[in-house]
């Protein structure tokens, strides 16, 4: 039996499960909201073209307006100034969008402190317990934050100081960017940086270091609690927008049934 035939068979008999990690995209999906005078992207809106009516008696379809960075989306290097000469989303090699998935679980810490930050020692401790990161892997940061996704205010968790969501410190972001095994970093929150990342040095260090190192971000993930710490495979499917700084994406994990 070929490798692909074995995969198809495992999917058919349920020994490999497909876990959808994508937040459903609607006009109510929370998106990043930057303070004035900075400009903001738009969320999703649908404009009917026809709906089984005189404009199209046998078909329904819509025009879609959506920001590149709305909902579950991929950040390409050209999204950030450190990667401005790098790849746009259409130029990312498909092989970089499929790879081993590893989960760093800090749900308890994030519940105690919404401003919790991953430090290099957290990555080192993970490797001491689970082994070296596999090549071309995606590191997924589990925080339990997606449980807030049904309420925009809870999801953003903002006060007068701005949003409070877990993320990665500047030194942690350097560690991610310098690790040759990593293709991307995924989070349950609205962006790959912490809510208070504007107060770090540099500001928004995950964007700065990761995208500048030809690595990619993946945001607003769900069902991360259904993933094993190691052993799953991630599939990320952004739209290949020519020149795009990112794209809404469907993200799946292939997980062996226990």
TrEMBL record:
Signal peptide: none annotated. GO terms for biological process: L-tryptophan catabolic process to kynurenine. SUPFAM superfamilies: Putative cyclase. It comes from the Bacteria. GO terms for molecular function: arylformamidase activity. This is Cyclase family protein.
């Amino acid at each position: 039996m070929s490798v692909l035939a074995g995969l198809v068979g495992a999917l058919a008999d349920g020994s490999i499960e497909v876990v959808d990690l994508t937040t459903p995209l609607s006009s109510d999906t929370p998106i990043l909201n930057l303070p004035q005078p900075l400009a903001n992207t738009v969320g999703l809106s649908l404009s009917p073209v026809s709906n089984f009516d005189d404009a199209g008696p046998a078909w329904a379809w819509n025009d879609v307006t959506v920001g590149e960075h709305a909902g579950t989306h991929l950040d390409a290097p050209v999204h950030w100034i450190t990667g401005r000469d790098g790849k746009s989303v259409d130029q990312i090699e498909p092989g970089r969008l499929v790879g081993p998935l590893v989960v760093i679980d800090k749900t308890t810490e994030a519940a105690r402190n919404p401003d919790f930050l991953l430090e290099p020692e957290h990555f080192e401790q993970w490797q001491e317990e689970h082994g070296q990161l596999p090549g071309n892997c995606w590191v997924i940061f589990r925080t339990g934050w997606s449980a807030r996704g049904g309420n925009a205010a809870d999801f953003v968790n903002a006060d007068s100081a701005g949003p409070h969501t877990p993320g990665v410190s500047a030194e942690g972001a350097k560690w991610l960017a310098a690790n040759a095994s990593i293709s991307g970093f995924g989070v349950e929150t609205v962006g790959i940086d912490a809510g208070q990342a504007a107060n770090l040095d540099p500001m928004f260090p995950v964007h700065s270091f990761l995208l500048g190192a030809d690595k990619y971000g993946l945001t607003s993930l769900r069902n991360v609690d259904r993933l094993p710490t190691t052993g799953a495979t991630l599939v990320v499917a952004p739209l290949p927008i020519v020149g795009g700084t990112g794209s809404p994406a469907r993200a799946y994990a292939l997980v062996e049934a226990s």
